[in-house]
Amino acid sequence: MKKVVFPLQPVYDKIGVRFKQARATALFPEGDAEDPRGTVDIEYTLPGKEGEVERVRYDYLINATGPQLRFGMTEGLGPDGHSLSVCTAEHAVETAAKLREIISELRAGQKKTLVVGMGHGTCTCEGAAFEYVFNVEHELREAGVRDNARVVFLTNEAALGDFGVGGMVFRQEGYETTSKQWTESLFRERGVEPILGAHVEKVEEGRVFFEQLDGSRHQLDFDFAMLLPPFGGQPIAAYDREGKEITSELFAPSGFMKVDADYTPKPYEEWKASDWPRTCQSAAYDNIWAVGIAFAPPHQISQPRKSPNGTVITPSPPRTGQPSGEMGKAAALSIVDRIKHGDAAKPHEASMAKLAAACVASAGAGLRSGTAASMVMMPIVPDKEKYPTGRDLRYTRGEIGLGGHWTKLMLHYMFIHKAKARPGWQFIPE
């Protein structure tokens, strides 16, 4: 954990940013009775100031809170229940310790079942679960205990390789293949058992209960289960200047902020790339932006599905690091232009329907034995009006091998360098 966790105060002091370690609790976009400037109420989480509150005035606001981990949407899910998580540094440390215990028991000749995947039918971050399951499988092989372990991947995807983006078509060596075929091949090679189209209903000690897209219900006993939670927006209430609540005007029921997207309900067949936001400006106030997972998507990217019981089992759209960084940069540049040229300045754009994204998913660490699955897609949200397959095949590719691991390692150190604002950080791309 020491390699990835560091204090933020010295970083922000160095670049002249006033840092307040706190959580936002309420938003007053029109100000209050004392001041018409927008206001955010915060509650400090800094040790020594926990619980103290403050009202912070703003001219421009970027909502980049990241997700709320909603373990409570599935009974028994999460570190306070009967499964593990890697969603925070503390969760990851706890999960790594449990994995070491399992490996010790496997070395003693015991048989174990390890389950990795999604803890709810509407989860996102399928790529993170994919990455983790193959890292676990790699660690088992490196420890010489793979033959004693059953490794199961429990996912809400209808097909492997969906990743919450509806899958991809790759062109390699003159042939077209799909992320489904590519991913299925890796699962067969590593002996990982996929359970598809699954919604976890409940987790008990050593047992997970789930429903599948065909309506059937099952249970699976486990010795180790790392199941990701569904995400929601942070619980921030919004009020007008008189104190009347206007939360529903700024936020979707999920808690994510409404932006310049087309939220008109429409069937899957009528979804368009143009439904997705271009500037990520608030739909209600043009001096507010929501970037990364903080913005409310207009709909899923993957085809929506329900079981015969009416249970929604469909990945939510991912808003991963690279596009999130691009959105944040576009919002910052828009604010710079507003300050320099006034409110009429044209906002910068960073639409997921135009942005490319690269994902390097580790499939096992090791300078000689490591591998990683490297995927690039352009654009993230398919545009079937522009491309027959939804994406530009010149820039949509997938490879797996040692080269991907070295790339992942290089990116790790580059992004830590950038996050610490070390010399030259500005030249490291998103």
Automatic annotation (TrEMBL):
Residues 299-326 are annotated as: Disordered. Residues 300-314 have a biased composition (Polar residues). SUPFAM superfamilies: FAD/NAD(P)-binding domain. Signal peptide: none annotated. It comes from the Bacteria. PANTHER family: FAD-DEPENDENT PYRIDINE NUCLEOTIDE-DISULPHIDE OXIDOREDUCTASE, PTHR43755. This is Sulfide-quinone reductase.
